[in-house]
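re: ur question from earlier - yeah i can do the single chain one, its not a big deal. heres the input i used so u can compare w yours
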Amino acid sequence: MQNRDFSRALLGLQERASDVEGFSRNIGRWFNDGMEMVSGAYKRRTQWRLLALAALVMVALNVDTLNVLNRLSSDSAVRESLVAQAQALSAARPTSAASQASSTAFDDALSQLTSLGMPIGWTARNSALWSASRTSTPKAVAFQILGWILTALAVSLGAPFWFDLLNNVMVVRSTVKPREKSGEERPKG
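and the output i got, formated as tokens:
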């Protein structure tokens, strides 16, 4: 049955063409249109799967954007230690990913973040759900769930999105910085 549909499609393309080159162009357009539809459907399906996977990982690790933002904005010691650690890591060349086992690298990164005071992981201090029986309010639980959703959305956008965004911010910043340093120029005369 599929061969008949394919044959009918090719015959229709041949009828619309006046010569062999026209037939070839019609086949090319037909193929490209079909591939655009298939790739669009694949991309949408993949994005939903990435979002579900990101949500699962964010909940499993209890990485809550709103909690991290709150901790960094309210605790200057945590913020300063995180900045110092980031500067130290950017100054030193990291070892290749192949030289360390991924589970060891993950454990090291998680222990570094928790030692810096980042609210990541399942502890009573980091989770409204963990302490739900004691001091948590429905508002705190809702904020934690919203934080997970925001984190999952941010992660599911992928690295190319964030690198492009950072590049755009750096371009804007570089166009604004020289003016701030030199100040406004006075008109001559």
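The CA atoms of residues 119 and 126 lie 5 Å apart. not sure if urs matches, ping me
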